[in-house]
Design brief:
12 copies of one chain form a homododecamer. The first copy, chain A, is of the alpha+beta class. Chain A is built from 1 helix and 3 strands, in the order βαββ.
Chain lengths: 69, 69, 69, 69, 69, 69, 69, 69, 69, 69, 69, 69
């Protein structure tokens, strides 16, 4: 593993249901165009409020992936 | 939207069930006295332990709302 | 309560299911060898990605407990 | 001055023009209901983008004021 | 305790004597108008200098209290 | 809005005139190749000094945009 | 000194009297089981409020000590 | 450039007009006694409020300069 | 220089030898596809341990480059 | 006050007695060579341990003063 | 890997030679008493100066290891 | 040691070779004009890139020294 170089991108996923679902959606979307996704780190958890209830969650994460050789 | 002024308050919600439920309870309580709640940001996630298990979650969030004109 | 001294240890729990479950597992494991666990604070939320989906969550927490007199 | 107690509130001001104008609007709005405003500190500078240009600035500040005796 | 919602306010207390006294004065002032104060956290310790000596301490703290049901 | 995924990129804009102009230039440049720019956040404000005066401002910002479906 | 390895542990001391006393109590408790304590650093200063007054201080510190050869 | 050593000093400039002007004044004042000023970084933006309006801005910056050989 | 816009990307380089070598490898890999690389900043230094020794270093850096006109 | 430029220096004061005394000693020492000291901010509180007790406190502070016209 | 719980300890290694050597010494010392060491993260790099030269480096790191089942 | 007051200055050293060499050069330069240098702490590690390779390292450190009595 010691010769790899990784790139880290920052994404924000949204979900009406949960923090986990917002992360899952961001990772799923990223995997359409990026290969070799390896890890993520949550860096911010926010959300919108509608009529006194949570409308949806917005979770920002960093995602790391191996650069193709 | 560019002429609004927002106020931000800090709240801690508690729940025996989940992080999401603790946030939902804090937002619901705030909406009883504050109108025009718009967004929240989670700033701390803690909890109490009882008998070797999570007793309840304590989630601190900032909540932003439009000041009435 | 004012005469107690607490110690704080840092743990990382893992779960394929949720952030809450990763914390619960770390607390359960700690309670096997440490008594008087009182509180926890989440300090980092990461995870591994496998085949474009979240493989498991890795949640790092600080756990505080009362030192035996 | 040594016997005063101050309270600090957090506000977000908006302006289509500049950072300074967004702060000025937040302070002006606060002064309608709070007396003895003394100082502010900028804690976040964000904004919205519309059609590839800055639509408006959103500047979050802490504002300190003397509590009435 | 798991059903409570807490609010957190930020205050700055002043004292010519000590950090502890500045905190005590801020808490005493807050308790005149807020009930059910539960905890505080020191977030900044500053002070003014007069003639080469400490004139007074200014300690900023967050104070948490239970919102009335 | 709850089904969108956003990407965040980091840019540094420069201007001899003002902080606002440096941000505007970075946003204008980004909009040439990225669509659906939504928001920005200033993360660093620096500058170069030439002959005892500010030569130009260098403002680093994060810019968020919707990923095309 | 250049060949030593130190370990750092995190403790919270409590005192009804002062910040200094809370630190002193934590250090005294640690010295019962750990030898060669060398330094400490205060990382958090909190406290509980009882009846509108400070009930006790809770000061969290990191304590470094030399590992026995 | 690789053999230079730089020193960094921290200054606070004030202005009734703008953030940029406060920085410009601090840099101009520093250049009276320090040569070879190269860059600055804004580290804090505060201000005083007078009669419900911004009285003046106080901007703290780090300024780097080459040490004379 | 005042009219340029820079982009900043985040990379992680690995090396069995040293921190400097891990940075060099990340920069070398980035220069295959990105032109006009100008500066880097180390933001995290981690590593893996194998059999009680450092297996390899993982250094995360931000790399800035000029966007082509 | 709006036309002044301030300089900020960083000092560490020591005391066997208290945090306040360590700050007082640093301010007193600074006032021997610097005029117009105005404010300070505590940025780190550490100390040395001798024989299981606090040997002395080491408090690092930033001190601001008006630059002579 | 998803069922493991890790513990994180904080160590400071010293070396007259380099940052890498200080980390290596801390990891080597930890492996004498802790099994299953997996990763480390550098959290502070300091050092002592003797006669105008670096006497030794002091590097503080967090080290994670799997708790035995 | 408890009666000393220390001053802390911030320097940036450069080197084409390594992080350690950049620190060594900054300390050596400081020791020409400052006596009683005691410790340093690395606060930022950056560098310039030239032709796809590291041109030189720029390491910013804080250096503490005893003020002459």
């Amino acid at each position: 593993m010691s010769d790899h170089v990784y790139k880290v991108v920052e994404l924000t996923g949204s979900s009406a249901d949960s923090i986990e679902d917002a992360v899952e959606k961001a990772v799923a979307r990223a995997s359409k165009t990026l290969h070799h996704l390896r890890w993520f780190e949550v860096v911010e958890t926010r959300g919108h409020i509608e009529n006194g209830r949570i409308g949806h969650w917005q979770v920002t994460l960093k995602v790391g992936f191996t650069l193709d050789e």
